[in-house]
Amino acid sequence: MPGLFVTFEGVEGSGKSSRCRYLIKALQDAGSETVFTREPGGPDVSEKIRSILLNPELDVPPLTELLLYFASRAANVDRIIRPALERGAIVLCDRFSDASLAYQGWGRGLPLPAMIVANELATGGLKPDMTILMDLNPEEGFRRMNLSGRKLDRIEMEDLSFHQRVRNGYCDLAEKEPERFLVVDGLLSEEKQNSLILNEVLKRVHREG
Fold first, then answer.
1. 0.85 cut: is pTM over it?
2. Pairwise CA distance, residues 179 & 34, whole Å
């Protein structure tokens, strides 16, 4: 497809959403059509699923959780991501398939081979052209979230060992696909993070163009 698909990944509190917002504005200021979406979420049906998945009052079994993420993703790809890519837009997505492998695979211990097959069905084989991984020790992520004072969602409320496994999963994924992943140190200043990410994305835009 003529567009460029960029995803942001990272543990809770890593700053990925803030970096994503900065990149959206920078690309739009440069004149690029830029479409933002998120996971879980995006189209209305996926946002409804999001409200279930992140509700701290609900007890969601691991397999149910995984299948709800896939259902949300399937609608997001069909209604937002693929149409935007087909018209040549840059699509920025806050989490995508790698999040399922890290959170439900490494974090929950669900079988990775079966997850990969099911994800192919949910996405129609769509993969990001570039994935920006905001790497951060979950202990620092927890510190940042506590300082924010906001109410934590169901996933954020998991214990530290869960989030450590998630980080290990992300690191493993990045090591296996270094050509796709840009790993950004979450301890760098926001200015350095923003500059690094924007420069690398612009290189990819110019190369694809």
1. yes
2. 23
With a CB cutoff of 8 Å and minimum separation 6, the contacts of 99 are 9, 39, 69
- The tally of domains found in the chain comes to 1
Scored b (16 or more CB within 10 A) or e, 20-42 reads bebbbebbeeeebebbbbbbbbb
Max Cα separation, the chain? Answer: 47
Q: Mind listing the pLDDT tens digit for each residue in 62-87? A: 999 999 999 999 999 999 999 999 99
Contact (CB, 8 A) for 125 and 81: no
Read off the tokens for 162: 């869960």
State the average pLDDT over residues 196-206: 93
Q: What is the CATH number of the domain that holds 19?
A: 3.40.50.300
The DSSP bridge pattern shows strands 34-38 and 181-185 to be unpaired
Amino acid at 159: D
pLDDT at 193: 98
Domain extent for 159: 4-208
Rounded to an integer, the average pLDDT of 140-155 is 92
